[in-house]
Amino acid sequence: MSAPLRADGLRCSLGRRTVLTDVSLTAEPGETIGVVGPNGSGKSTLLRALAGILRPAGGEVLVDGVRLDRLTARQRAQRVALVPQEEDLPADFLVGEFVALGTTPYRAPWSGGGDAERAAVAAALRSVDLAGFEDRPVDRLSGGERRRVLLARGFAQRTPLLLLDEPTNHLDVHHRLQLLRLVRGSGRTCVLSLHDLSLAAATCDRILVLHGGTAGPATAPDEALTPEVVRAVFGVEATPVTHPRTGKPHLLIGDIEDDSCDDASRR
């Protein structure tokens, strides 16, 4: 279950401020695309535009060849699921009730949940290592558990395109890696924003680097996150290495050395 995504020439504004200018992105069926950039570079804005929640001031977004702005809200929700970076869970909900909201686009109006919905909720919770949490009040969850419940709702939506805004926030190392394995193994087309450059390099097929309100094309991790690009965009040094067991690329990140200070200390 996957679909191609194409965004052409997106220009996005928040109020009077232009956040993104002429940003284009394609994702092939089943591909995982990472979006990286400094704080305030427009990662969340881009994902909201790709989900059809934010209407771009210019450009267009197509999922499986269909323009999102020509679909109803229900039709969009059957094609695209967005898991935001932060969201307040309603305190009086049980976990199962909240995750079941992901199945709403497929329900008939005013219909209640049946066996199929309960099975979908249970499967989504198992996928994020929260099996049996259906009757747990959401206000008794830890930060990491709340994050995984949000992800479970997105998985329960069963869309061919999945958009994840900083999905590894509040997750420990085990669940962070488990989540990214789950995304890659789901067969869905996925676009996710990440702060961890090494994690993006190791898990994404291609990476889009946002900087100064725009971006070049998404490219393979070793092309997108060269030491020169990382220094210019993030102001840190990046040393590419190959993991000795997996053979996947990783980045060792460090501060830019200030040679002038070193020179002064030697005088």
Automatic annotation (TrEMBL):
CDD domains: ABC_Iron-Siderophores_B12_Hemin
Keywords: ATP-binding, Nucleotide-binding
Pfam families xref list: ABC_tran
InterPro entries in UniProt: AAA+_ATPase (IPR003593), ABC_transporter-like_ATP-bd (IPR003439), ABC_transporter-like_CS (IPR017871), P-loop_NTPase (IPR027417)
The keyword Cell membrane is annotated on this UniProt entry: no
Stretches of the chain forming a coiled coil according to its record: none
GO molecular function annotations of the record: ATP binding; ATP hydrolysis activity
Record domain ABC transporter: where: 5-237
Name of the protein in its database record: Iron complex transport system ATP-binding protein
Source species: Saccharopolyspora gloriosae
Lineage summary: Bacteria, Bacillati, Actinomycetota, Actinomycetes, Pseudonocardiales
